[in-house]
């Protein structure tokens, strides 16, 4: 007895649906947003220059949220919220398989965020805390420069300019050393690609060569490798 064609087609479609099913979630993001009564929260990641939504949840009175996705490896994700799909705000964090907790407020969504989770996130936070200190110093120099220019004090302007340049060099040196110190973490190639991409190519190459084999084969390790290869090509051309 011949099997009906439509039955074979049904079996084929069923098999394809199993093969195309989404992998099971192995990462969960939970937390609270104090003051948020209505809106929508999203878990997102960056693909090229576009943010892709991985999960979402409607907030209707509750402050607690829970989002999840499947991660192949540690990478930077974003918690965001919006009201009526406008004025979206973001909290970047380094995620890894397991659970991350973010507690924040609606008033200062990004600045009030307290994040606990992956080892990569702990390093990311340590790095950002120091960078914030550099940024604060830079703001003070900008204010001083404005006042010096206003009073036509050219000597003071020159002095502040030199201090600003030295501060920038110190910031780059810190970022490079931080990456080299943590060569066994995904944070190292991430910083090289996204925090100091315009640094001297020899420093980026040094960071890449210092990476452990596992990190070289990671998402950000491959992106750094590609950036170095493209840089070599542009120099040849």
Question: Could you walk me through the main structural features you see in this protein, from its secondary elements to its overall organization?
Answer:
By secondary structure, the chain is of the alpha+beta class. The chain has 2 domains: 94 residues, Sandwich (Immunoglobulin-like), CATH 2.60.40; 116 residues, no CATH class. The protein is built from 7 helices and 8 strands. It has a 4-stranded mixed beta sheet, with no helix packed on it. The chain has a 4-stranded antiparallel beta sheet with strand order 3-2-5-6. The longest helix has 32 residues. It is flat. About 3% of the residues have low confidence.
Characteristics:
237 residues; alpha+beta; Immunoglobulin-like; 2 domains; four-stranded mixed beta sheet; four-stranded antiparallel beta sheet; flat
